[in-house]
Design goal:
The chain is α/β, with parallel strands linked by helices. It is built from 17 helices and twelve strands. Bound molecules: NADPH dihydro-nicotinamide-adenine-dinucleotide phosphate and (2Z)-2-iminopentanedioic acid.
């Protein structure tokens, strides 16, 4: 097993995030391979860590100034054993092949856990939507889709949003796909409501992360009532995580963006959250403005010299990282535990480093890994695909109830798989094992392809 990780590192030495994601899964599925010798003979680890297809392409577009800019586009089609490739698109300057491969790899197991028929993929670009005009974002999306359209389709590969890709970008991308293919199909999810989107899709990742955490709490006969929660990020996932926590009686005291974070000891109530949604989704402003509007809150700018994030150094019971990968390191995990945090539910993908995860597991806190805890987003994307196929739209309660059921089922599946392999209560091992077994068995059923 170590050899496989070494092989992957030697083959693509610069793909650190991919190595990290693979290492975590391989470590936890070792007992599965020990019980199933045919998996080794069938080289399932080598097969599952190599994408079925990688597309990289030039994305040229024109800035408002008339300047031509060239970005790089990616789509990693990782695994289609249980359904069409499915996963988001990320537009962020940090995007590279290693990051998209780690996200696509995680997506395979996450989608497997949802109970829906979706394979795993991910894509994106190093394009930075921050500070760009709507017209520039539109031209970029059109150029991106002018290449991507030939690789995707409602039964082949169905992209959605992720960091930097929300309803506005999905609209521009869909418009270009429709024009090029002359087809109105459910080729993207996260669409607006009046042209094929699903109710609850915008809320789904954040709500799901809280539903998953509520399930974990219920194993100790507890609820969110009166609990203090640290939330990072202030985008789609952070906003709806906060909304659901408030509804369930929790008190959210932090939010952040890449420039800094706010600490509001009194708690972010519905009115303040409404302000954040306007600030972020309509004005596209910075979280620092929250402290101008609500002077009782303290704003702390990001200090790149620090080896920890002060957001994770406040008294609380729960932490929901909802910004980006590796945002909780070993020092942060130590701070969280010292401050009384015993529930961590990951809205973001791989937000905790291996050193942080080790501390969560060693201390036996309720740690919900991203591929289980944030699967609600892609699960409702799956429900959007189902509604598109039937050409009808379910009411809000129906989608929300299905989301709740799916999160409950993922929680139970993680616990069962962990129990079955002698690591009771370890949701990370349970998620990896359950996700892995289902995909691997489907691959073996379908022969060597
Ligand atoms: P958004 O673009 O809506 O929001 C991202 C937030 O995270 C922003 O506040 C952003 O700040 C912050 N952020 C991004 N990159 C960094 C960074 N390098 N350092 C510090 N802060 C950063 O994205 P989402 O809310 O959709 O995604 C958040 C996380 O959730 C990601 O990890 C994503 O992969 C994951 N996720 C998303 C799903 C979805 O359905 N959208 C589903 C499952 C997981 P700034 O504005 O300054 O960049
Ligand atoms: O990481 C994720 O699961 C997403 N960004 C959502 C993917 C999707 O297809 O809805």
């Amino acid at each position: 097993m170590e050899q496989i990780v070494e092989l992957i590192k030697n083959r693509d030495p610069e793909q650190f995030e991919f190595h990290q994601a693979v290492h975590e899964v391989i470590e936890t599925v070792k007992p599965v391979l020990d019980r199933n010798p045919e998996y080794r003979q069938q080289a399932v680890l080598e097969r599952i860590t190599e994408p079925e297809r990688v597309v990289m392409f030039r994305v040229p577009w024109m800035a408002d100034s008339g300047q031509v800019v060239v970005n790089r586009g990616f789509r990693v089609e990782m695994n289609s054993a249980i359904g069409p490739y499915k996963g988001g698109l990320r537009f962020h300057p940090s995007v590279n092949l290693g990051i998209i491969k780690f996200l696509a790899f995680e997506q395979v197991f996450k989608n497997s856990l949802t109970t829906l028929a979706m394979g795993g993929g991910k894509g994106g670009s190093d394009f930075d939507p921050k500070g760009k005009s709507d017209a520039e974002v539109m031209r970029f999306c059109q150029s991106f889709m002018a290449e991507l359209y030939r690789h995707i389709g409602p039964n082949t590969d169905v992209p959605a949003g992720d960091i930097g890709v929300g309803a506005r970008e999905i609209g521009y991308l869909f418009g270009m796909y429709k024009k090029l293919k002359n087809e109105f199909t459910g080729v993207l999810t996260g669409k607006s409501l009046n042209w094929g989107g699903s109710l609850i899709r915008p809320e789904a990742t954040g709500y799901g992360t809280v539903y998953f955490a509520a399930e974990m709490l219920s194993t100790r006969s507890e609820t969110f009532e009166g609990k203090t929660c640290l939330v990072s990020g202030s985008g789609n996932v952070a906003q709806f995580t906060t909304e659901k926590l408030i509804e369930l009686g929790g008190k959210v005291v932090t939010l952040s963006d890449s420039s800094g974070y706010i600490y509001d000891e009194a708690g972010i109530d519905s009115e303040k959250l409404h302000y954040v949604m306007q600030l972020k989704n309509i004005r596209r402003g910075r979280i620092s403005e929250y402290a101008d509007k609500y002077p009782e809150a303290v704003y702390t700018p990001t200090d790149p010299q620090l080896d920890y994030n002060p957001l994770w150094d406040h008294k609380a019971e729960c932490a929901m990282p909802c910004a980006t990968q590796n945002e909780i390191n070993g020092v942060d995990a130590g701070n969280l535990l010292r401050n009384g945090v015993y529930v961590v539910s990951e809205g973001a993908n791989m937000p905790a480093t291996p050193e942080a995860i080790d501390q969560f597991i060693d201390n036996q806190i309720l740690y919900g890994p991203g591929k289980a805890a944030n699967a609600g987003g892609v699960a409702v994307s799956g429900l959007e695909m189902a509604q598109n196929s039937m050409r009808l739209a379910w009411p809000r309660e129906e989608v929300d109830n299905r989301l709740k059921q799916i999160m409950k089922s993922i929680h139970a599946t993680c616990l069962e798989a962990a129990d079955g392999y002698g690591v009771s209560g370890n949701y990370m091992a349970g998620a990896n094992i359950a996700g892995f077994v289902k995909v691997v068995n489907a691959m073996l059923d379908q022969g060597l392809v």
